[in-house]
Amino acid sequence: MPASTRKLLDPDIIGRAALDAVRKLNPVHLLKNPVIFVTEVGALLTTVGLLMRSKSEPAGFVLQISVWLWFTVLFANFAEAMAEGRGKAQASELRKTRTCLTANLLRSDGSVESVSAERLRKGDLVIVSAREVIPADGEIVEGAATVDESAITGESAPVIREAGGDRSAVTGGTRVLSDRIKVRVTSDPGQSFLDRMISLVEGARRQKTPNEIALTILLSALTIIFLVVIISLKPFGRYSGVDLTMTVLVALLVCLIPTTIGGLLNAIGIAGIDRMVQKNVLAMSGRAVEAAGDVDVLLLDKTGTITLGDRQATDFFPAPGVTIEEMASAAQLASLADETPEGRSIVVLAKKHGLRGRSISDMPGAAFIAFSAQTRMSGVDLGGHRIRKGAPDAIRAFIGNDYSVEVHDAVSQIAFKGGTPLLVADEKRVLGTIELKDIVKGGLKDRFERFRAMGIKTVMITGDNPLTAAAIARESGVDDFIAEAKPEDKLMLIRKEQAAGHLVAMTGDGTNDAPALAQADVGMAMNTGTQAAREAGNMVDLDSNPTKLIEVVEIGKQLLITRGALTTFSIANDVAKYFAIVPAMLVGVFPVIAPLNIMGLRSPASAILSAVIFNALIIIALIPLALRGVRFRPLGAAALLRRNLLIYGLGGLVAPFPGIKLVDIILNALHLV
Amino acid sequence: MRNWITELRTSFLAVLALAVILCGLYPLTAWVLAHGLFPGKADGSLVTRDGTVLGSSLIGQEFSSPQYFHPRPSAAGRGYDAERSGGTNLGPLSKNLVDEVERRVAAYRAENGLPPNALVPADAVTSSGSGLDPHISPENAHLQAGRVARARGVPEAKILELVEAYTAGRTLGILGQPRVNVLRLNLALDGVRDVGR
Amino acid sequence: MAMMDLYGWIQLALFVGLLFLVTKPVGLYLVRVLEPDGKTWLDRPVRPVERLLYRVLGVDPKGEQDWKQYTQSLISFSLAGLLFTYAVLRLQHILPLNPQKLGPVRPDLAFNTAASFTTNTNWQNYAGETTLSYFSQMVGLVFHNFVSAAAGIAAAAALVRGIARHSAKTIGNFWVDLVRVNLYLLLPFSLVFSLFLTSQGIVQNFKPYVRTTPVESTTAAAPDKAGNSQIIAQGPASSQVAIKMLGTNGGGFFNANAAHPYENPTPLSNFIQMLSIFLIPSGLTYYLGRKVRNQKHGWAVWSAMAILFLAAALVCWRAESAGNPRLQALGVDPGGGNMEGKEVRFGVSGSSLFATVTTAASCGAVNSMHDSFTPLGGLVPLVNIQLGEVVFGGVGSGLYGMLIFVILAVFLTGLMVGRTPEYLGKKIESYDVKVSVLAVLILIFSILGFSAWATVSRWGLAGLNNSGPHGLSEILYAFSSGTGNNGSAFAGLNGNTPSYNITLALAMLFGRFIMMVPVLALAGNLARKKLIPPSEASFPASGPTFIIILIGTVLIVGALTFLPALTLGPVVEHLLMTGSGVLY
Description:
The complex is a heterotrimer.
Chain A: H1 11-23, H2 27-30, H3 34-49, H4 59-98, E1 102-106, E2 112-116, E3 125-128, E4 138-142, E5 144-148, H5 150-153, E6 159-162, E7 169-170, E8 175-176, E9 181-185, H6 193-202, H7 210-240, H8 246-256, H9 259-278, E10 281-283, H10 286-294, E11 297-301, H11 302-306, E12 307-318, H12 324-335, H13 341-351, E13 367-369, E14 377-382, E15 385-390, H14 392-399, H15 405-416, E16 420-426, E17 429-440, H16 444-453, E18 457-461, H17 466-476, E19 480-482, H18 487-499, E20 504-508, H19 514-519, E21 522-526, H20 531-536, E22 539-541, H21 549-572, H22 574-586, H23 604-628, H24 637-654, H25 656-669
Chain B: H1 2-37, H2 39-42, E1 46-49, E2 52-56, H3 95-111, H4 122-125, E3 135-136, H5 138-152, H6 156-165, E4 167-168, E5 179-181, H7 182-189
Antiparallel strand pairs in B: 1-2, 3-5, 4-5
Chain C: H1 6-33, H2 43-57, H3 67-90, H4 107-118, H5 128-131, H6 134-164, H7 174-200, E1 210-212, E2 230-232, H8 237-246, H9 267-291, H10 295-322, H11 325-328, H12 347-360, H13 375-386, H14 397-414, E3 422-423, E4 426-427, H15 430-455, H16 458-462, H17 469-483, H18 498-528, H19 543-559, H20 563-579
Antiparallel strand pairs in C: 1-2, 3-4
């Protein structure tokens, strides 16, 4: 993806965000963020107050307070604009690919007409040839082609798309490199995948997630509470003979309401989606990212997620009286016509036994029999010998009677270990047993271990028999497995887990995965998958790498932790601000209150101003953390909580004391108060 | 609305039914049992002499003549009004309080013949919460003993002996404060021993 | 009476130790009482009465209510009780048991008093001895001492059920909870307690006030006293004091409340009364743990309460021991501490501990005059109340108040475990947050709103007994105590004026019922939710981290709000006391 190369704090983005921050001062926009809205009203009041201030208040003080209150609002806006920046840049790149596409529309009479892509409707058929850009999302109904999808995935290696099956979907904006395909359009203009992607990365239609709504309610309530505190302080002051000015009351209000988290809340959410995008995962909503953090059951397809996708030959076990070279040679010959990955892996393994590479074209006299699902055998007829390789029962049928006890043992032992046994036979003689094994991806065991520590259960789904499934489950370290699973079983399993209160994540690519993807709390569809799958899920992985589900969960958790950490930090901050402002407000009338000024701030004006400035600057200081996210550690909840509470809770309590003091020193050094 | 009507009907029934049990049966049972088990205490721990009710050993009463020990200042009515219990409710910075205490300190020193710098026990110059505090601190009693002895013309040691005898320690050795019941001590001075035990 | 002497430390340790020991048995008993068919050893005598009551009320004890029905029953019953007491007070002159021939109570005072007892506040704008007949006390007030306590326990039980249940619609049956709590818990406990109190000297009779002949008026030594008499108020005090403590009501039989020797005669009665205030609130934390099948959580809540309590008790005790330097400057022995408004038999440690207990809970009984405490000593009760009385708190109301803070604490920090906030397997969502903050908002609105109004109005200032910062404290204390349903006072404030009677009554009603509706709504909403099975990733609702978070939330959300006002009141007063010569 072009924009993924951009740094978090790219100067271009900063420049644009600064402008946006000013634009966002529009109160209508801020109404959605009550905390910052109140801050803006406060800024407005002190600014107006500048003209009607009481004589006791120096204009310089009121002016500086007003300015810093405006900065507080601007900084909050800036945080949001920064978070949006990377997405916006990316969206404009994506928009370029969309412009001025033409399509070869296939008419019902068979003629082809060149039309603008915008005129295409669902169900239209278009022809796309090599070097042309696919004009709209669709499904290949005829042909196969290599397609460059780097415009949306950032991955430069071309992918193969073909009619029928699970790899038939093509995306508008991607380029056909070879061949010619007929595509049925599946989206109307404006609703294409690219369009959705643009609006997603741009955050244009971003809706608050349930947790954000709840948090906003809490922050609004705190704002109301502090409003009551401040308003009631006026009469209390009057009773006590303290005349509290509007400037001071507004300053205290803004310091007490949770401006830090209020200002950064949106940025954190947007940055979460953005972090997904950086991993080439498109989350359809912030809600999906949030759900990813909550997930506690991962349904993982064996093939492609846990194993490398295909079984590989790992060993030859010759029958008694057969040398390993003899067996390897026969196995290779029998597999030359087997184009499946299994077949190819046998050829490769045989080479390790000192055989030179052979190919079909080397042997004009041989009659090759290709692998077929009916016979479940492949082989070659060579010099009167019929050499075959295949599943044990297929070979037994081929040789016409049972094979030896030794071979029997080898077959059952391989099956027990979770492998797949194949037999090689020359006419009526069984030469030996080939062991095919699923190769488990590296590093998974550790990862699943980490998940267990985080309270997430991993369940492997496989069509294999229970024996094989158990062996792979053991090797990969998943917590549980479902063997001999049919696609419908996934849906059932998800419903069962959800009924027990779990949140479930899964990946899928086939059309028959669609219902389960829709049912799952996090359904990550592969970009190579069918249109149906991509629409059913709430995330699309552009790299089509199912293992990435694991990272998605981590990003979700990171988002939630960041939000929680900054909320805690923001609220803990209040303690210090009280100690800065309250003594300063009252010391004029009650000089005895001076000992409460524990930070030793130089003067009342300096104390109040320092608190306000600190309050504004802390937003800026925390923007990088909000955008990057608190580092996620795979620990249990108790350990995570302890750790984060220590950093952000205790930190939030303590940090403002030296912070405000420092501002106070600088203000006085510069003679600003 | 109908719902509310039936609900209120149930509510009033509940109020009446529960009132019978909680406000009728309960206090009456408590009354019967209390009188059965602790008759004197249920009736107010009254102290009588020759058929005259002199007061209650739990309720402080005014003593101002020199031959008696004096109780604490009282804010109940015009002092030890057992129909109007209460304290001064003056805050620590109250001028009224400070002035009053200043006056009491001077008076206390004067009537007990203490030097002008003598520390005065806190309870002797502050009002109690109830205004009916029956006790004074042993320190307070000791300081008054000399005056009582002089007024009665008996040796101070005799008086101090009585004070000692009428000083109650902490309950279970832990709870509360050592204290002297003024009424009981004063009656003992008059020869009435061990009332209200 | 040395400063913070050893005896005080032992007393404090003994108090917390005993409280810890009674928590489990009381909690287990509560589990039985709060189940409609729970078995207790009182079943044989009480069960028939219980059944009879259901028949009279027409209530099906097996039928449960959803939160709206539960709330409706609770509010409707409280309304009926309010009207009942109002009628009793207004008609006391024609009702029996009025040996002193007291007249009817003024309408505004009757309204205030009825609201006060209905809401478990027991704020006393009346003076018991001179205003209320025995009947008014025994029927009009004691009734609420029982049923308002039962209603509080019922609401807490409903909330605990909401937390414990899942995918459920109902949260119990109010009438069953009301009847069972009264019959199986409050009534038998009170009866036993009442007898103990009489054994210590609390009166229990229906005699007219006793006219006595004071000793001095019988001797020739004081001729000016001849013919004087002391009239000593009497009454059925013991039965009332027992439930006033157990039900954290606090309304005194006599004006001086638990400072009056007839209400609290001995150090032992003082100690047991303090313990009885916390008995049920402490047991309820065990009940919580038991019902939600997480006893560690119950103890964590208990520990948070205990820590807050100890901190408060120590601050108060220290301040009172140090005494008033202004009086010490006049020659008052500093060793005695601040004895103004305190009884000799309790001393400083027994008084400051009582003050902390009674305001940590929503009891409001006082054995010393908080108005005369040192500024920081008086700050403690005030802050205790402003926290929402969640440190053990009122019977029921303490637990549900604390659970509101638990919800807020979990919501604020729960995200830090990397999941959306979750409390004991329930997701905390916007509805839960909304009703929880509503409960907190009501408290703050009522306390600060009414206080602010009073400080700038003629009626507000007219009631003050002290001026300067202490006057502000008196007003703040009144509306905090009213809203928090505590009932104790900086009693110098003369609240018995129409304006105070009505504003305080409103504060009490808001603080009770507007607070209870969100609590029960929360109960209903939590009951409805699905349960997420516990795992390594679940928010740990126990252990030191949780306790710290809970305490932090209570202090930051609960207390900091009041800091500016408190600074102008007790804090400034303290600094003036120690750092200047100002008097008011």
